[in-house]
Amino acid sequence: MPECYAVSGARVNRVFLLWAARGVVTLPRQMALFPLVERELRAAARRGRTYWLRSLVALAACAICAWVCLVTTRGQQHLAMGKSLFGFLSALGFAYALLVGPFLTADAISEEKRDGTLGLLFLTTLRSWQVVIGKWLASSLAGFLGLLAILPSLGIPLLLGGVTPGEYGRMALGVVNAIFFSLGAGMFVSVLSRDQGRATLGTVVLVLGLAGMLPGLVIFLGSITLGVPVAKLEPVALISPVWTGYQALDAAFRANPRQYWISLGISHGLGWAFLAATAIVLPGIWRDQLADRPVTRRWVLRLGYTRGWRRTFRRRAERNPVYASAARQRWPHWVFWGLVSLVAVNVYWLTFGYRSSPGSAKFHQNFAYALVFTNRVWVAVMACHVILEARRSGALELLLTTPLRARTFLRGHWRALRHYFFWPIVVIGLLHVFYVVGTWSALSGRSALGNSYLLSFAVSAAGSFVNFLSDVVALCLVGTWLSVSMRRPALAILATLLLVILLPFALSKTLPT
User: Fold this and answer.
1) Cβ distance 392 to 114 under 8 Å?
2) DSSP state, residue 207
3) How far apart are alpha carbons 317 and 375 in whole angstroms?
4) Could you tell me which of 336, 308, 106 has the C-alpha nearest to residue 203?
5) Residue 323 Cα distances to 326, 403, 411, angstroms
């Protein structure tokens, strides 16, 4: 028996990619048009991330299946168990599909721009769309293989009952379409960005905005402000891949099958539109023209060339050069204060605004969850950003060759993080107090039991703030450690969020209370 027939199923993808790279398997003639695709496939065949990500995702899906069947749905009938398991796995699939883009493709082109190697590709006969397709395939391969590991687990509820084959097929198609949408959005933000942190956060905002925040905001403003019925505003939600998953369920699909296919087509078209826009924009931005831009165009946002800033930088450099270098930019302040402003507006609506429009409470609760996740993403980005940039530019190696001690380096890094996060965290704490006082005043004016609820609201708000504060500290600690220790620094942000936020959240939803 030839050796190739003894290869296990888990290694089929790797063997095929290696054979294609070595010429054992001849690629189609059309592949000659994509030399960059062939190069990236060879690189992906030797990249460990292509395989261990698939194994981790499959392990997580199997663990959720076992836990839901043995603990969460114990005592239920098979039909109810199948529906519950299908809901858990569908949520896992969409969460994975929407979050994989910001961390796999958001830095695909911006990394080349930072290294100054993007222009070398345009010295060849390659066109911009070939560069985009090649970088997209290289960055997306691991994500697609991980998604393929979820789909067999998603079919387990078919054996239990309660889920039809058509429902499974529509949901699987929706999840695949969601990851295509997310990866395309990551490529589009990557071509517009130069910094990894800003590219990651921008992709998170774009994906979450189109997936839920923007349609929800339009429906909310149209129904509350303009008085338009919600049923007439539902077509706005067709751009959301999450809405496609909702329409894939049997009840919604039987009521209106066209909604599913239209939503699927629109979100799929957005994915192609992102890739096309990337290919159009790429030829005009690959040249490094920062030196030709006037300082006044960046002065308002950066405030980096004023006398006060120079005096502050000189004073910080005398204390700790790492702190001075890490805290020299002003744009992180604007981003975090912008997020805090959105939190303040949302807290006001949750406390007082819902009285004039009770139907808006559900939207603001979901919007609060999106803001909570976005704030934590930004904390993780900034916790890893300084060290990742130092590793990329070689500044970290230069610092290690100086008499600067590791304790001094870490102290400067933590001072920079306190410089960025301290006052926004204080304001978020005051917003918790505002929420408690406002909610208590509303209840005390409506019911005699309002005073008795003050303690419960205070404890709940204090627990929420302590949870946020502990998340910030944990993200900074784990992000600092992973950004120094990981062999692939680009995955440090994703690993930090996975260990500190996503994994504990998944356990809290599955463990019995």
Assistant:
1) yes
2) H
3) 29
4) 106
5) 5, 16, 8
218 burial class (0-12, 13-18, 19+ CB within 10 angstroms)? middle
pLDDT by residue (tens digit) across 405-457?
888 888 888 998 998 889 988 888 888 888 877 777 766 655 444 556 677 77
Model-wide pTM > 0.90: no
Q: Got the DSSP string for 229-264?
A: -HHHHGGGGGG-HHHHHHHTSHHHHHH-HHHHHHHH
Q: What angle do CA 454, 458, 462 make, to 5 degrees?
A: 175
Q: How many CB atoms lie within 10 A of CB 456?
A: 11
Q: How many residues does the chain have?
A: 513
Residue-wise pLDDT tens digits, 46-105: 777 677 777 887 887 788 777 777 766 666 777 778 888 888 888 888 888 888 888 888
| Vertex 293: Cα angle to 289 and 298 (nearest 5) | 120
41 to 15, 308, 417: CA distances (angstroms): 12, 50, 39
Residue with token string 């994509």? 34
Reference 104, options 177, 44, 17, 18; nearest CA is 44
For residue 105, give both structure tokens.
């493709």
Q: DSSP label at 226?
A: S
Structure tokens at 1: 């028996």
Q: Residue 366: which of 346, 382, 352 has the closest Cα?
A: 346
Going 248 to 251 to 252 to 255, the CA torsion angle's sign is positive
Q: What pLDDT, on the 0 to 100 scale, is given for residue 270?
A: 93
Burial of residue 460, with CB atoms counted within 10 A of its CB: 0-12 exposed, 13-18 middle, 19 or more buried:
middle
DSSP helix, strand, coil percent of the chain (3-state; round to 5): 85, 0, 15
CA distance 329 to 386: 11
